[in-house]
Amino acid sequence: MLDLKVRRGKQEFRVVRSWFAEEKRFCIWLTNLPSETYTANDIMAIYRSRWQVELLFKELKSHTNWQRFVTAQKAIVDGLIWDSLLALIIRRSKALQIMPTVSLFQAAKNVDVWLLPIFECISHKAWSEIGTRLEWACSYIFKNAQKSTQRKSKKNIALDGIYAGLNA
Fold first, then answer.
1. What pLDDT digit, counting tens, does each position of 82-95 carry?
2. Any transmembrane segments, and where (predicted)?
3. Residues above pLDDT 90, as percent of the chain
């Protein structure tokens, strides 16, 4: 691990470098966060969190048609963004309640198939049907949203693991 203070002209920043043996490569981060407050490991965790946030926005753009809004009114655009974030939170929390090891990406790709019928029951107050819809959703997610094992899929670099490390 390397953590250097560097000055270029009047600007001062840090260069944090770490070797990842498993991947056989160095990663380098540049930051202006003070070393008195943030360790090199904190810097790496923060930047990994940033990548997770980027992936969330990619998911939102892919599954909520964020490519273009049909309005230029800021209040409406803000509302659509907040609604999309709320839908993402609901979609993810329901998928995780149904199956804790679910692939959130796979579950999000077809939320209209498994979550919409549950919301329809709620909106129509069809309380007697919710149990059946939940069972079907569980079965559907179990069959269609299994998490695939990935080389980089490690608990400490997922968003929850990063937050746990920063809050420790």
1. 888 888 888 878 78
2. none
3. 21
Backbone angles phi, psi at 101, to 5 degrees: -100, 25
Q: What is the rounded distance in angstroms from the CA atom of residue 120 to the CA atom of residue 110?
A: 16
Number of neighbouring beta carbons within 10 Å of residue 126: 13
Q: Which token pair is 81?
A: 């963004």
The first and second tokens of residue 108, run together, are 């999000």
Write down the H helix ranges in the chain.
40-63, 74-98, 104-109, 111-114, 116-123, 127-144, 159-167
How many CB atoms neighbour CB 4 within 10 A?
A: 11
Write out the two tokens for 18.
């770490």
Calpha distance 21→70 (Å, rounded): 48
**Per-domain residue ranges for the chain?**
1-38, 39-167
* Six token digits for residue 36: 């008195």
